[in-house]
Write a structure and sequence with these properties.
With 417 residues, the protein is an alpha+beta fold. The protein is 31% helix and 26% strand. A hairpin with a 5-residue loop joins strand 4 and strand 5 (72-75). Bound molecules: ligand EPZ.
Length: 417
């Protein structure tokens, strides 16, 4: 089994370039099922979730491959409804986007229950309710989901009971070719939703967003295009927590600072010096004070930064707290930080953290962001840490070991036997 070995307490100095956003690349890759022509997508991160998404499309008869370091070419003209790579669907949440995409492309879909980071139950009821609102019939059991419609889907007004990135994306995908105007309210406003809408419109769709309302006017077909996806905002924010823990100064290039504006304000309030340039940040961390945050849908504090921020609070003067309102069970990282001597206590959906001197330990990543948090904690700890289940981390962070080593971190990847 591969593991990451880190010797902590090294100051970070240097530059990193942020990769393309995994959570944009995945819906855009599956959206290519709506486009029977070549689509070339740039700034795609080389992470395992992306490779798996391409493999799923290939197993349907589509052409889907990297044609450059960070560019993929996808043509789904010859894609068939049957998916051979079904085992990969169970490994990632983003394969749930096959539902909206295949409903639009084939009028029906039958897939195994999608997987995803294991921090508690991850229902799909909002997705299915949206599809039903468009006239589809949805059948699900523990193993699989089947969605079909005996007649053409009909435009409608869909109100999401809860803000959901995945449900918003899936209902948009299902609405692209529906005659008339479909209105989706209480939508997620994450940049990756914006990214998908921009991509689809560049292919000829007619989708507009007004705040948390998305209006989709059905079109007859979509056309191939060339598109560059947004930079990964969570990766950029993750590296800011790393330098906050290790102290030092790093340049982060390839960012969209607009997506980070609220977090930049928060970090400045904690003592970070952050200088904004054209798609770049210079981050200097000397004395960092703690903070209290509450996670909520964009543009509020992102749930995907929660575990990494908890690691930062372990080293910030006075510590702080994190109230988790999106995934109230994403706390598996707590027991791992406790192995390092962290002073962290969970009460319900909130963790309370006091700063402490952490020691390196043998650690197990339990999901993508928890894994990134263990890297953070290990970078600041005294001595050696070993992090197992690296597969969780590399599914969402491109070249994380090289990027950290290039800015002075003492880190290496030990290949498994
Ligand atoms: C996406 O997950 C991301 N995954 C997650 O990132 C991210 O944490 C999440 O959005 C929130 O930003 C991908 O983009 C692949 P939701 P998603 O639907 O779409 C509940 C990462 O680390 N809900 O916005 O699954 C749900 O349980 C991953 O990159 C329902 O109740 O998240 C949660 O409490 C982890 N019913 C809340 O809504 C549903 O049908 C928000 O979930 C759907 C969701």
């Amino acid at each position: 089994m591969e593991k990451i070995v880190i010797y902590g307490k090294e100051k970070l100095e240097g530059s990193i370039k942020v990769s393309g956003m995994k959570n944009s690349a995945l819906p855009i890759i599956f959206a290519c099922l709506l486009i029977p022509e070549d689509c070339i997508i740039d700034n795609v991160p080389r992470v395992s979730d992306v490779s798996n998404a391409l493999k799923i499309l290939n197993s349907m008869g589509a052409k889907a491959e990297f044609c450059g370091q960070h560019s993929v070419i996808i043509n789904t003209k010859n894609a068939k409804e049957s998916i051979k790579e079904t085992s990969l669907i169970c490994q990632m949440r983003a394969s749930s986007y096959l539902m909206g995409a295949m409903l639009s492309r084939f009028g029906s879909v039958e897939i195994p229950m999608p997987g995803g980071c294991n921090f508690g139950v991850r229902p799909l009821d909002l997705h299915l309710k949206g599809f039903s609102g468009l006239g589809a019939i949805c059948e699900e059991n523990d193993e699989k989901i089947k969605i079909f419609s005996n007649k053409k889907l009909k435009c409608n007004k869909i109100i999401l009971d809860k803000i959901s990135v995945g449900a918003t994306i899936n209902i948009v995908l299902a609405s692209v070719f529906i005659d008339g105007v479909t209105v989706i309210s209480n939508c997620a406003m994450e940049p990756h939703v914006e990214d998908l809408i921009s991509f689809l419109n560049k292919c000829g769709a007619c989708i507009n967003r007004y705040g948390n309302v998305i209006i989709c006017k059905g079109v007859k077909r979509l056309y191939g295009t060339k598109y560059k996806i947004f930079p990964d905002m969570i990766e950029a924010l993750t590296y800011i927590t790393y330098v906050g823990i290790c102290k030092g100064s790093i340049d982060i290039s390839g960012v969209n600072t607009q997506h980070l504006s609220n977090e930049i304000k928060l970090f400045r309030g904690m003592g970070f010096k952050i200088f904004e340039g054209q798609s770049r940040l210079r981050v200097v961390a000397e004395v960092i004070n703690g903070a209290d945050v509450v996670t909520s849908p964009y543009p509020c504090f992102p749930t995907d930064l929660h575990p990494q921020f908890a690691a930062l609070l372990c080293y910030a003067n006075g510590g702080g707290s994190i109230k988790e309102l999106v995934f109230p069970t994403r706390f598996a990282y707590v027991k791992e930080l406790e192995k390092m001597g962290a002073c962290i206590k969970r009460h319900g959906n909130t963790v309370y953290i006091r700063d402490a001197d952490l020691k390196g330990a043998m650690l197990d990543a339990t999901d993508l962001r928890a894994g990134a948090a263990l890297v953070a904690a290990a970078l600041g700890a005294e001595g050696k840490s070993e992090i197992n289940n690296v597969n969780y981390i590399v599914r969402g962070y491109e070249n994380i070991v090289e990027k950290i080593a290039n800015i002075g971190g003492k880190i290496k990847l030990i290949k498994g036997d």
